[in-house]
Amino acid sequence: MVLASCGGGDAAQKKGREAPLVTLGAVQSARFVERIDAVGTARANEQVTLTAPVTQRIVRLNFDDGAFVSRGQVIAVLEAGQQNAQLAQAQARSREAQQQLNRLEELKNRGFATRSAVDAQTALAGQANAQAAEARAAIGDRVVRAPFGGWVSLRNISAGAVVSAGTEIATVSDVSRIKLDFTVPETLLGQIRPGQAIVATAAAYPDQPFRGTIATIDPVLNPQTRAATVRAVLANGDRKLKPGMLLTVAIEAQARTAAAVPELAVVGEGEQSFVFIIENGKAKRVPIRTGLRQNGLVEVVQGLKPGQRVVTEGVVKIAEGQQVRTAGAGNAAPKAAGQAKGN
Q1: How far apart, in whole angstroms, are the C-alpha atoms of residue 128 and residue 259?
Q2: Strand, helix or coil at 217?
Q3: Mean of the pLDDT values across residues 326-343?
Q4: Which terminus of the chain, N or C, has less C-beta within 10 A?
Q5: Mean pLDDT, residues 116-135 taken together
Q6: Predicted confidence band at 343 (pLDDT cuts at 50, 70, 90)?
Q7: Is the confidence at residue 328, as pLDDT, over 70?
Q8: φ and ψ at residue 120, rounded to 5 degrees
């Protein structure tokens, strides 16, 4: 009875020490992209705040909230009754002075007027014309026009209100394109250049990437942050991006193809990383030097070559020199190489 019991215990113990089951996978060749990440602020392609040039009453407003206005379109008209009267008076003086000048020139040609009289009348006619031009300019100043085509802001003022000089009437924004400003540390300036592609995302549209290119790099760095302001331009035909939005920016700086393994295959121990390979049915730990991590793959800078087979599942169950069992017929041949593309 005792011997039978002992024999049953040995069998159970032997069964408990059964070699762990692991899955093998081939080292892949994958594309890794070094990215520069930043946060930027969206700005309108062109934007201007139109203000009242003088203190006067608003006669007419020619825009609706958020409407599109064309270049040169009248936005607001201010009262110009006094200036219109001054213009009429100046025009009357100009006509009178010109008629008198014509008579003097005729008399001079007949010898009945002096040259000095004609010159004096010419000066008077010129003065009257200048006064008329001044009145026209004053009237023109009271007509506020859009300097370029764009969308106007919400209207916060009404016709009939008396505004002082500098009072905001409307903001016109050209958002057909967006200027995206963000900063890049001086240590990374060598990896960016004008014309380089960027991808931006906004919190309002997390699943929609907005693509553009770097337009210019500020030649002067901020002495406090040691960073340069970079401006990119993004198409915005659907007008989803609004000036003032905060966007995250990703710049593809460098791309390369390198050996890669799944993240689950890499085991860390302090600052050292390693993977397991199988030799003669036993686990062997191989130190590696890792690089980028993208889409579930880890770049292997040193220690492995494409085509080698490593333990991809079950690494937590094995140790150096331990006998293991491999699962799946697919472990007999390397897997097809894949690619890791940056977002």
Answers
A1: 86
A2: strand
A3: 48
A4: N
A5: 83
A6: very low
A7: no
A8: -65, -40
Residues 6+ apart with CB under 8 A from 62: 73, 74, 75, 76, 77
Lowest mean pLDDT among 15-19, 122-126, 179-183, 252-256: 15-19
- Region label for 136, one of left (φ > 0), alpha (ψ between -120 and 50) or beta (otherwise): alpha
Average pLDDT, integer, range 134-152 = 88
In this prediction, residue 17 has a pLDDT band, given cuts at 50, 70 and 90, of low
- 197 strand-pairing partners: 213
Residues 6+ apart with CB under 8 A from 61: 75, 76, 155, 157, 158, 159, 169
In the chain, how many H helices and how many E strands?
3, 19
Written as six digits, the tokens of 142 are: 């009271």
Q: Could you tell me which of 49, 45, 41, 44 has the C-alpha nearest to residue 153?
A: 49
More confidently predicted of 316 and 205:
205
Cβ neighbors of 19 (< 8 A, separation 6 or more) are 281, 322, 323, 324, 325
* Residue 259 confidence (pLDDT): 87
Average pLDDT over residues 168-172: 94
Residues 6+ apart with CB under 8 A from 173: 44, 46, 47, 150, 151, 152, 153, 243
- List residues bridging with 38 in a β-sheet: 249
Nearest C-alpha neighbor of 125 from the set 155, 93, 156, 84: 93
User: Nearest Cα to 167, choosing from 50, 72, 47?
Assistant: 50
Which of 93, 120, 97 is closest to 108 using CA atoms? Answer: 120
Give the whole-angstrom CA distance, residue 122 versus residue 102: 9
Instruction: List the strands of the sheet with 143-145, edge to edge.
Output: 143-145, 74-78, 56-61, 162-163
Residues 267, 316: Cα–Cα separation, whole Å: 8
Distance CA 76, CA 12 (A): 94
